[in-house]
Hints:
Mean pLDDT of chain B: 92
CATH topology of the largest domain in chain B: Rieske Iron-sulfur Protein
Structural class of chain A: alpha+beta
Number of strands of chain A: 10
Helix content of chain A: 55-70%
Strand order of the largest sheet of chain A: 9-8-7-10
Strand content of chain B: 5-15%
Low-confidence stretches of chain B: none
Helix content of chain B: 25-40%
Order of helices and strands of chain A: HHEHEEHHHHHHEHHHEEHHHHHEEEHEHH
Bound molecules: protoporphyrin IX containing FE, FE2/S2 (inorganic) cluster
Mean pLDDT of chain A: 86
Number of domains of chain B: 2
CATH class of the largest domain in chain A: Mainly Alpha
CATH superfamily of the largest domain in chain B: Rieske [2Fe-2S] iron-sulphur domain
Number of strands of chain B: 11
CATH topology of the largest domain in chain A: Cytochrome Bc1 Complex, Chain C
Shape of chain B: flat
Shape of chain A: globular
Oligomer: heterodimer
Amino acid sequence: MITDRLARALDDRLRLSPIARRALAKVFPDHWSFMLGELALYSFVALVLTGVYLTFFFEASSADRVYHGDYAPLDGATTSAAYASTVRLSWDVRAGLLIRQTHHWAALVFAAAILLHLSRIFFTGAFRKPRELNWLIGVTMLALALANGFTGYSMPDDLLSGLGLRIIVSVVESIPLVGAWLASLALGGEFPSDVMIPRLYVSHVLLVPAVLVVLISLHLGILVRQKHSQFPGPGRTEHNVVGSRLWPSYTLRSLALFAWVLAVLFALGGLVQINPVWMYGPFQPAQATSPAQPDWYVAWGDGALRLFPPWEFRIAGHLVPAPFLPGVVLGGVTFLALYAWPFAERLRTKDRRQHHLLDRPRDHPARTGIGVAALTFYAVLVVAAGDDILARLLRLPVYDLLSVLRVLVLVLPVLAGLLAFLLARALRRGDAAGVGALTRADLRRCAPRPAGPSEGGDGPGGQETPAVDRPGGRIEMWPEGDAWHWRYRDDAGRLVVTGNRAVLSRQEADSAARLAYPGVDRIVVPGPPPAAPAGPIRTALRRWGRAMAAGSLLLAAIVDRRRDRRRQERERADDTAQAEDAGSTGDGRT
Amino acid sequence: MSIRRPPPAERAASRRIVAAFLTGAAGAVGFAVTYVLGGDTRWEGVTLSVAFAGLAVGLSQWGRHLVPTGGYVEEHEGFAPPPFEQTMTTRALTAPDSPVRRRGLLAALGLALTALGAAALFPLRSLLPFDRVRPVRARTDTPWGPGVRLVDAGGRPLRPQDVPADTMVGVFPEGHVDAGDGPAFAVRLEPGRFSRQPSGGHLDGLAVWSLLCTHAGCPVRLYLRGTGRLLCPCHQSSFDLLADARPVAGPAARPLPGLPIEVGPDGFLRAAGDFTGPPGAGFWSRP
Lengths: 590, 287
Ligand code: HEM
Ligand code: FES
């Protein structure tokens, strides 16, 4: 086989197999929410790929250019080189518009994927020790992703982005003491300066992406070192990861996700127009478009600017302008809160242990309530950023809508948070499987006790369920060639999970198994040989059942016979093993 | 041992996967053909999307039906470090001859590094070229000044009669149509309706204000005819021109600065000075 020869040739020169074997066997938990991080990763890859193509055509300069090309309304017009090259990219470069729009869509999806990923990390408590580091890196990447989205949006020098840039500059200028200096240093003068676009460009295509690449590598490196967390379930402990292996299942699934991301992005980029800068016209200091909305991931800031009352005050005669609180302070507080959350929670729960088993959102009602409240708050802000459009759609005066939104932004988060808190508590107390299965009794049970978020530290965040003894569980080990395998079998739950790697000796298999399942000391040597990994095939068989009736009957008979034989063998082995293990359980970990 | 014939379910999955990959290949070819034929954004997107969707379906079917899913466990060493290793590491770091024990030298090293770090900040000042006006001056001064004529966007000077009643006319300082802080607008209102005199004065109802919103600097372009109100498209602040452009709704807190105007000897409108305050958004040192 070519693969075999190639692998050997490489390994003979680089001695990679010890690491590669571990890496290929790395176990990923099988839960969709673990794909959200990969969604972010692949949107980033898509951004880099499409972005590099765009750099060949985009001209980051505010020097005058005469546009000549297919877009007739601007033919012969003099605009900045940045704007003219963007219009040329959209109208005159073949496949240029596709790549440009795909790039923009990828930025929107990237931000959304990060937000979803962050939410899954938050609501499941995956940020707890030892994963705080990755949380901090993650929050930094979120900030960088938003910043890079904004610089990218501003570069084409069109009218809409010019407005956005002007607003951000005003927000920066509102910072006490240093605001005007910061803005002037960044712009190299007054808005709109001629070095503005080249600077945005350097930061958009070089600085921030480079930092993101470094941080993503760190993020994934730490993830591999720390291994994935997982939801609690049969066979899952604080000392193992249960799921599928990187090779081959996750490789295929992950590549499939990558292809899906590209398929969706190119479909959007080809079919759904986004940011048609030729319609907005070039930036001119005295012109504005209306309505003017930013991309969704900065809309919360725009919404806050709209909702915040016209409050300005003076400190010792110095002005603190209106955009300071909703712009600078809200943004700062948002990211500070995100950075601080894992540590704040630990301060409150006094929980310093390591957690590799995740919470379900219901397990920690206070955290869930606060998270839902925060998400609601930012969602109302995003809606507020479209207040003029919404007012037109609802045929309401925009200022009435504004008053309503000002109330909603304070009231809705509290209501939503409280509701989430109560539902989570009802779910935790009762045994309903999901929100849909909650009975009225469940709800009533949680209602009488006064509900305040202060009360929620009592979740399993505080007292994590100890690694229970598994009464029905046992470890089976068997030699195969010169390697040893092991697996965990939980007769009650009908669960069999196999150790992800073969090892050289029985001792190694033994210690791996005891590490993964402390407390299980029924060890069977030799266990039965492995059955063919039957899950998917057996399900498929069921689907094809009618045609296969005869075949499957036959198969079942054979399997049955083998199982019988195995059971007898096992019972025989059990006896010998127990005798044999009486000596070795003493040094096992408990 | 006889060669196992794949069960029908597996064969069916293989057929689906091959079909998906072939569809993907067709998509790729379609993309190339679309491109060669002159390109059409929609078809380019669709074909490329089909190419990747084919890949995606094939790969995910493959991952789901032909390789084992789930059923594996990996042990987790945990992150409690081996006590011996930890002790020995910290001991090595803090051994008697260790640099961290030389407090005095460390302080001096720290000083040197801090100084270097601080010195490295200085070149950042070059981001704002030294020949530019200082930030605060730049924000207070505009190209307007005594005698600067009012021109329209095309650079033509304006006479008072070029501003018809109840319309908004964008005006710029002559020679600085592109300046960021220069844009202003002229309106002609009924002088009797002023509840507060325009800060820049008016010529028979003709008054001029800065165009930049005092909230975050957007051009306040939307004139609500008849009401004498002006709306900012960015965050919907509105300003009452009849009351010296005070903000009446929305997030803006300060009135638009006015521009004192007069008619020059040539009959054209000209400024009698700079705006009555720095135009646009507020900042710390704004008077
Ligand atoms: C640039 C954006 C990001 C990329 C490309 C990214 C990528 C990933 C990937 C691929 C994983 C493993 C799969 C998964 O658990 O979903 C992961 C895990 C993780 N991420 Fe991110 N991430 C990003 C942003 C964030 C953010 C904003 C946070 C939180 C503030 C965060 C916190 C974490 C944590 C704590 C883990 C470990 C989770 C666990 O093992 O259960 N990441 N990230
Ligand atoms: S910039 Fe005018 S309302 Fe915000």
